[in-house]
Amino acid sequence: MSDRERGQADGRRQQRDEDQSAEAVETEADLDALDDLLDEIDEVLEENAEEFVKNYVQKGGQ
Amino acid sequence: MALHKVLGTETEYGIVVRGDPGFNPAVASSLVVNSYPGQRVKVQWSYEEESPGRDARGFGHDTYGLIDPEGAVVNSVLSNGARLYVDHAHPEYSGPETYDPREAALFDKAGELVMHRAALAAGEAAGRHISLYKNNSDGKGNSYGAHENYLLSRETPFADIIRYGMTFMVTRQVFTGSGKVGKENDRPDIEFQITQRADFFEEEVGLETTLKRPIINTRDEPHGDPAQYRRLHVIIGDANLSEYQNFLKLGSTALLLAALEDGAIPDSLDLADPVESCWQVSHDLTMGRPLELDGGGTATVLEIQGRYLEWLSKYVEKELDDPVWDQVIAEWERTLTLLGSEPDKLADTLDWVAKKRLFEGYIARDGLSWTNSKLRALDLQYHDVDPAKSLYDRLASRGSMRRLFTDEEIAHAAANPPTRTRAYFRGRCVSEFPGSLVAANWDSLVFDIGESHLKRVPMMEPLRGDAALVADLLDNAEDAADLLRRLEG
Question: What is the rounded distance in angstroms from the CA atom of residue B34 to the CA atom of residue B24?
Answer without folding.
Answer: 16
